Amino acid sequence: MQIVVEDREFRRLKPETQQELLSVLTGKRGPAAQPSPSTRQLKWRQPVDLRPEQAMKFVHGLSADQRRRLELFAKKGGRVRMREIMDLSGDTDLRAVSEFQKLMTRRLRRIIDDPEKKAQLIGWDFNATKWDDKRTTIVDGVYYVTETTAASLRQCMKEPA
């Protein structure tokens, strides 16, 4: 008999179930691993705090454009208007900033322990959203990282406080 569990489905299982399956399949029995304290603190739609050593890992290997965008967060204390990011990179389509946000989230999840895929680096301030006259298209808003992350980015990018 063969049982196939796709990667996506495996990640949707509870961490305890994942650990139990892995221990059975590898033959390594032991106590089920408990989620790390950092994982238990993750919340949906709330950016995580990057410590300085994590920020160093995070920015290593980024393109110059990606670094410039993150430097903007560091310089501005963690809150940056969508239009500022677009102007910096020369983008005219607001979806480009969303794509950057997604890319940074995927990168973050490789650095921290996040089996439930809750973590995100950059959040959106829904209360600061600016709409066009017909309220059909977003024209500006605020992306943000935590103050801790902004400080860590400043430190690893050598930006003055």
CATH top-level class of the largest domain: Mainly Alpha
CATH architecture field of the largest domain: Orthogonal Bundle
Distance between the termini: 61 Å
Q: Strand order within the widest sheet?
A: 1-3-2
Q: Report mean pLDDT, rounded to a whole number.
A: 84
Shape category: globular
Question: Would you mind describing this structure in some detail?
Answer:
The protein has 161 residues and is mostly helical. It folds into 2 domains: 34 residues, no CATH class; 121 residues, Orthogonal Bundle (Arc Repressor Mutant, subunit A). The chain contains 8 helices and 3 strands; from the N terminus they run αααααβααββα. About 6% of the residues have low confidence.
Chain-wise SSE layout:
Elements: H1 7-12, H2 15-26, H3 37-40, H4 52-59, H5 64-75, E1 79-81, H6 82-89, H7 95-111, E2 123-131, E3 138-144, H8 147-157
Antiparallel strand pairs: 1-3, 2-3
Helix pairs in contact: 4-8, 5-8
Short description:
By secondary structure, the protein is mainly alpha-helical. The chain folds into two domains: 1-34, no CATH class; 37-157, Arc Repressor Mutant, subunit A (Orthogonal Bundle), CATH 1.10.10.
Q: Which key terms come to mind for this protein?
A:
12% strand; mainly alpha; 2 domains; 3-stranded antiparallel sheet; 8 helices; 161 residues
